[in-house]
Design a protein that fits this description.
- Helices cover about 5% and strands about 40% of the residues.
- The protein has about 475 residues and is mostly beta strands.
- Strands 12, 13, 14, 15 and 16 form a five-stranded antiparallel beta sheet that branches. A four-stranded antiparallel beta sheet has the order 4-5-6-7, with no helix packed on it.
- It is globular.
Length: about 475
């Protein structure tokens, strides 16, 4: 009976991976992308006036439900929802996020912050009920205060280790406090898990370093955090206004720990992890106290070593451009590529092979044409995908769709793992302490694993190659 309960729990926890909640993006001036065929397709019928942070969510079949720029919520017909005017930020928040309420088929949270740690706004949640308005949705509750602390513009979310609940992460301005709120089927906890770790943003002109991004790694074990600090023309000690750091995250307890201070480029703004969690990318928006002699950068850190000094020294500039050409958000997309917002450009940049080190990541500046429209600073904020396209179409890549089939499961001896394509993968089995107990760098097709030497328990299975990540779990009896 205990084993049966474990299997039921695993199946429930994998439900979210059967979804295609990030398959459609809507960002500034009605520009958008549809990833449902794996090959991104431009769409142009949106109404998003998002200047910076934007979020869009789709249903389990990848069809759009609604989207927002934090100020307004639009439904799938591109009309403002009833009660859909939320806050008045001018669409200038670095990040806003839409999150499903766990175990609900109709309720979603829209989380908004405040502008550059100034004014009367604060961390708030708003509830969208998709069962209302003939299935087009309605904002049934709004402007619910989560915290009265002076918070930054950065928010992000990742799954709890149980695969069902969600962690919402924000940060207090002027301190080193990360605030992690647990979201369950009962709602959002009113008291956050507070981690006092890393550097605090030092107040500067207009609190510009209260903007930037928090990003979780796809596996939910790392957090990157930055501050859009000012340049050397801002006076003495302006370097203290710039922040770029990497942390560990415990997705069971919500605790942030083990800070690694990374060499910033000043004016750091966008962040994204590669699909295989091995690389961290960042961009700059040099907005305050810089000169025309400065440049904006797209850069990469290699995280594979796990050593803080090695990681800090691994920084590589992937692309630089004149300061008047501004980078914005970075986002790992359903196709396994990382897209780069380029303010007022008719193209998005595309990192085609983000798991690769240095310039082998294959960044193309004019990578995705916006059909005559222009990019803002934002793309789409949602829980990072753990699994990506296989080139033949979007695959859910989970037990429920048998895209990564492990059988018999549970077992006390032999497991068979069926990889869903004929590509070659690095296949790893990892125990609950993070120790790799099986490592096959040339796995393809059907793999037989002898688990007689494994201890009883639950193991994480990961298959990774240049563009694709598959994950699963097995139970050794």
């Amino acid at each position: 009976m205990k084993t049966a309960n474990v299997i039921v729990l695993l199946l429930i926890s994998l439900n979210i991976f059967g979804q295609k909640y990030g398959n459609i993006w809507q960002f500034e001036k009605g520009a958008g992308i549809d990833f449902n065929s794996c090959t991104p397709t431009y769409i142009s019928n949106g109404r998003n006036a998002g200047y910076e942070g934007v979020s869009c969510i789709s249903d389990t079949s990848g069809q759009i439900l609604f989207y927002t720029n934090s100020d307004t919520v639009w439904n799938k017909l591109n009309a403002s929802m009833p009660n859909g005017i939320l806050i008045n930020s001018g669409g200038t928040l670095s990040q806003v996020i839409i999150l499903p309420k766990p175990l609900s088929n109709s309720l979603y949270y829209v989380i908004t912050t405040k502008v550059q740690a100034q004014g009367s706004l604060t961390l708030q949640y708003h509830i969208v009920d998709m069962s209302l308005n003939s299935g087009l949705g309605d904002v049934s509750s709004k402007n619910n205060i989560l915290s009265t602390l002076n918070i930054t513009e950065q928010i992000a979310a990742t799954l709890h280790s149980n695969g069902t609940d969600i962690w919402l992460m924000s940060h207090e301005y002027g301190s080193n406090h990360f605030l992690a709120y647990l979201i369950t089927s009962s709602g959002i906890t009113s008291t956050p898990v507070i981690s006092s770790v890393g550097a605090a943003q030092m107040p500067c002109s207009n609190n510009t370093n209260a903007r930037g991004e928090i990003k979780f790694s796809p596996n939910g074990t790392k957090i990157a955090f930055n501050g859009n600090g000012i340049g050397p023309g801002g006076g003495i000690n302006t370097d203290s206004t710039n922040i770029l750091a990497l942390f560990d995250f415990d997705n069971t307890t919500g605790i942030v720990s083990n800070p690694i201070n990374l060499p910033y480029s000043r004016g750091d703004y966008g962040l994204a992890f590669s699909p295989d969690n091995s690389k961290l990318y960042g961009t700059t928006w040099k907005a305050s106290n810089f000169t025309l002699a400065d440049s904006n950068y797209l850069y990469q850190f290699d995280l594979l070593s796990g050593d803080s000094l090695t990681i800090a020294n691994s920084k590589k500039i992937i692309f630089s451009q004149p300061i008047m050409e501004i980078f914005g958000d970075l986002k790992a997309a359903p196709d396994g590529k990382v897209y780069v917002a380029r303010y007022q450009s008719g193209y998005l940049g595309v990192i085609n092979s983000p798991n690769q080190a240095g310039t082998a990541c294959n960044y193309i500046s004019n990578g995705f044409y916006l059909q005559g429209k222009t990019s803002g600073y934002g793309l789409n904020n949602y829980i990072e995908y753990k699994n990506y396209c296989d080139g033949t179409g979007i695959s859910d890549h989970n037990f429920l769709s048998n895209s990564l089939l492990i059988y018999p499961n549970p077992s006390n001896e032999i497991f068979n793992i069926s990889l869903p394509t004929q590509q070659t993968f690095t296949l790893q089995i990892i125990d609950i302490t993070g120790r790799i107990v099986y490592n096959n760098k040339n796995a393809t097709g059907n793999i037989t694993v002898d688990a007689t030497g494994f201890s009883s328990g639950v193991y994480f299975v990961k298959a990774v190659n240049e563009r694709t990540v598959f994950t699963g779990k097995l139970v050794k009896q």
